[in-house]
Amino acid sequence: MEHLLVTGGAGFIGANFVHHLLAHTDVRVTVLDKLTYAASREALASLPAARVDLVVGDVADAEVVDLLVASADAVVHFAAESHNDNSLTDPSPFVQTNIVGTFTLLEAVRRHGTRLHHVSTDEVYGDLPLIESGAEDPQRFTEQTAYQPSSPYSASKAASDHLVRAWVRSFGVQATLSNCSNNYGPWQHVEKFIPRQVTELIDGRRPRLYGVGANVRDWIHVDDHSSAVWTILTEGRIGETYLVGADGERSNLEVVQTLLEVFGRPRDDFESVADRAGHDLRYAIDATKLRTELGWCPQHADFTEGLAQTVEWYRAHEAWWRPAKAATEAAYAAKGQ
Ligand code: NAD
Ligand code: TDX
């Protein structure tokens, strides 16, 4: 595998994955990215032009996709509309990019017989009940959990996963899939939970919790997601799905309290704002298959340390996130969030 096509490689996880490839492999990368509001040329700017090139285009544009797939040894598909709150305001780009875009890519890899890895989310499984305090062995998602997406975003990702499996079974497409939990780390847009709170705190404002902050997310450092995707691409079995997670369950309230400690602020110095419609209660991943079958192991075990490093990264990269901050906050304020 010498030349990879990475869709959505100018977004948060895609860009971190490209950095991971440059540091740990010899592959050459072509990024296909539409450069939506969520993308960043800067995230790729430090990488050598001899190994990374960026094609600005739409994953739902069959002509461009066919041309790029024809010259790649394998494709890793990150491109998507990714924010749940935006999908509640306007679902249309979610259907177009996440479903039609994945369909377009599948047709191209079918024509060219190209290996594909499809990147998806644990949100396709819907949510789990919150854990009673003191309860043992709480339920977690596995590869056998039934699909039950809640939001337009997660429904569009679920649809894309179904298309990939159907193309494997019906047309013999050489694809693997992964469903990962919530990522954090550098280059994440300020609309998302952790960067929003970090940048509010840098600005001397209070973090904003939806409701009382009881909802639970299963956090994984983005580098660990990258190593999982590379492991599955190179060692995974065709047609298989692997769940990716690092045993990082925390309530949103706990995350905010950890951030408040990092900033030396009182633990109750946050605001409760309007809750998200249909807000999933809890996500939790059982990554046993990936760990035992492919020997993958996350490297960022300490969430508090990872969070503190992420705070430092946002402090050092204010020039990058500042231009998006005011408009993002204005859109939240208009919804009472
Ligand atoms: P992101 O929104 O930060 O980046 C998405 C990228 O896709 C952007 O660069 C954007 O310009 C590009 N894009 C959007 N529409 C496009 C189109 N039509 N054609 C080409 N490029 C297009 O998202 P992210 O958080 O980096 O997520 C990447 C992938 O990982 C998504 O498929 C998402 O569902 C999945 N995922 C994300 C998380 C998470 O915690 N963020 C967790 C699990 C899975
Ligand atoms: O200001 C906020 N306050 C708040 O309490 C924001 C922006 C969010 N939240 C809550 C909602 C969620 O319970 O924090 C949690 C995390 O929110 P998001 O960062 O929007 O992530 P989530 O909706 O869990 O989805 C993320 O993980 C799965 C990614 O955005 C998806 O792309 C991925 O598939």
Automatic annotation (TrEMBL):
InterPro entries this protein is in? dTDP_Gluc_deHydtase, NAD(P)-bd_dom, NAD(P)-bd_dom_sf
Broad class of enzyme this protein falls into? lyase
**Keyword NAD (UniProt):** yes
CDD domains referenced in this protein's UniProt entry, alphabetically? dTDP_GD_SDR_e
| Occurrences of domain NAD(P)-binding (ranges) | 5-309
Q: Which domain of life is it from?
A: Bacteria
Q: Which cofactors does it use?
A: NAD(+)
The EC number on file is 4.2.1.46
Quote the catalytic activity from the record: dTDP-alpha-D-glucose = dTDP-4-dehydro-6-deoxy-alpha-D-glucose + H2O
Keywords of the record:
Lyase, NAD
Q: Which SUPFAM superfamilies match?
A: NAD(P)-binding Rossmann-fold domains
The entry lists its GO molecular-function terms as: dTDP-glucose 4,6-dehydratase activity
In the record, the note on similarity to other proteins reads: Belongs to the NAD(P)-dependent epimerase/dehydratase family. dTDP-glucose dehydratase subfamily.
> What is the name attached to this protein's record?
dTDP-glucose 4,6-dehydratase
Name of the gene encoding the protein in the UniProt record: rfbB
